[in-house]
Design a protein that fits this description.
about 120 residues; alpha+beta; five-stranded antiparallel beta sheet
């Protein structure tokens, strides 16, 4: 594993945009002050570490096993190991009764005494 300190986030963003595959994004720069992007460029496995308080860096991994173990380690560092991705909506959620026989056509919320027109 090799690590190189980077001063500019523009360099990290350029590398991120040239990645052939992004495996995982851990953390959030807006809320956690740091973020790691694990990606692949050609045959190289790379971590791009963005930080507002520490040095940002690029980390190159020797092989795939080292890369995936670093992902799990970073999740532990950031406190994300016990949390999965939030699933706000699933296919099982029902937000209305499609089988209802009620007909709301012609329903008007305006009462007879209302004079305001929009």
């Amino acid at each position: 594993m090799e690590q190189l300190e980077i001063i500019s986030w523009k360099i990290l963003d350029a590398i991120r945009n040239s990645a052939s595959k992004t495996y995982e994004v851990i953390g959030d720069i807006d809320t956690n002050e740091h973020m790691s992007v694990f990606c692949q460029i050609d045959d190289d496995y790379i971590e791009l570490y963005f930080s507002e308080v520490e040095s940002s860096f690029i980390r190159h991994f020797d092989d795939e096993d080292e890369f995936f173990s670093a992902i799990e380690e970073r999740k532990g560092d950031f406190g994300e190991e016990e949390f999965g991705s939030p699933e706000y909506f699933t296919d099982e959620d029902e937000y209305g009764d499609e089988n209802s026989s009620e007909n709301f056509d012609g329903y008007n919320i305006k009462e007879d005494g209302d004079e305001d027109e929009f």
